[in-house]
Design goal:
Elements: E1 4-5, E2 13-18, E3 24-26, E4 33-43, E5 50-55, E6 68-72, E7 75-82, E8 88-95, E9 98-101
Parallel strand pairs: 5-8
Antiparallel strand pairs: 1-7, 2-4, 2-6, 3-4, 4-5, 6-9, 7-8
Length: about 100
């Protein structure tokens, strides 16, 4: 899928929470390593929430609920889901280099 660049200055988001079950891992067994952490954010542009993936190298983020956040170098990646023979939905995942509270 193609990446779509986003303007971080136009995104007013608040932290909605973490879900460790949606973290992204690479490898199996003892070689399994965390590659991306998953957080959920809300805002005027994303009233139902946005899925955000942060590289594990950015470190663990300790944010309080509804803390305003700024995204560093965001881009969106679409993921389609087929509903039936003629319809599909597009889920957008936002990938960032880091998340900064402000």
């Amino acid at each position: 899928m193609e990446k779509i660049a986003l303007k971080a200055s136009e995104m007013n988001l608040v932290f909605g929470g973490k879900d460790e079950s949606k973290d992204v891992y690479a490898g199996y067994g003892r070689a399994r390593q965390l590659t991306h952490r998953y957080i959920r954010a809300f805002g005027a542009d994303f009233p139902s929430g946005a899925d955000i993936l942060i590289p594990a190298s950015a470190g663990e983020k300790e944010l309080k609920y509804k803390t305003k956040i700024r995204l560093v170098n965001p881009y969106a990646v679409p993921a389609t889901r087929r509903i039936d023979s003629n319809n599909a939905l597009v889920d957008w995942t936002i990938h960032v280099d880091d998340v900064i509270p402000f």
